[in-house]
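In line with agreed milestones, work has continued on tokenised descriptions of protein folds. One protein thus recorded appears below exactly as we store it:

>
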Amino acid sequence: MKFLLVTDLDNTLVGDDAATQVLNQRLQSKRSQICLIYATGRSHASTRELIAQKQLLSPDYLIAGVGSEIYQDGTIDLDWAQYLSQNWDKMAIASLAQQFKKLKPQSLKEQNPWKISYCLEPAAENSSILQALQQKLTGSGLAAQIIFSSNRDVDILPQTSNKGNALTYLQKRLQIPSKATLVCGDSGNDISMFEQDVRGVIVANALPELLGWHREYGTENHYLAGSTCAWGIMEGMTYFWDF
């Protein structure tokens, strides 16, 4: 049976160089058995830089931009792009978001046709700001969702776009069953993956936003690792797959 490993990058696969190297070796030894997918908030270009810098294995697929883009061997998945483009009005959404002065646009390289990204400095009123933004979007008839992660990153995406939906899209294409699919993450933008009918590993260094979700919604399909970063991924692989 083929296995599907879907992992976030920053502070999950990457974050402890020694652990990453050990996991790379373990995955390489089982490469014929495992389909490897990276699911990240990073852009395609930023991800390629990180792969080279940290000497990561080349993934079979890349879910970039919090699920707003899917790549295989550097080529964007046009079917996914077309799917996300339905009812998506980026210009109107960006214009509306400009009304919220505390939202600071991220660099151009982190933007793409299906994602508008901002930074929001940590503050007590952030939840009310994001709630007001979502209400404005909904009230204006704009189909979009807001994903807030790492206590600073604000991504506005099509309603159908997130890591979890992108994962399910690829899982169906690859015809790999839920029990053979393992997702790994540490932050709020990973929650959508854990909401799918798959196995999940939350690394020990996960942020409060993900740990809080796990306390409320976690199931027997979710494993809270005792180890951080890639050590936690390996712990989960052993727990679920006996690898």
Notes: Residues 126-139 form the longest helix (14 residues). DSSP finds nine helices and twelve strands in the chain. The domain at 3-82+161-241 is CATH 3.40.50.1000 (Rossmann fold).
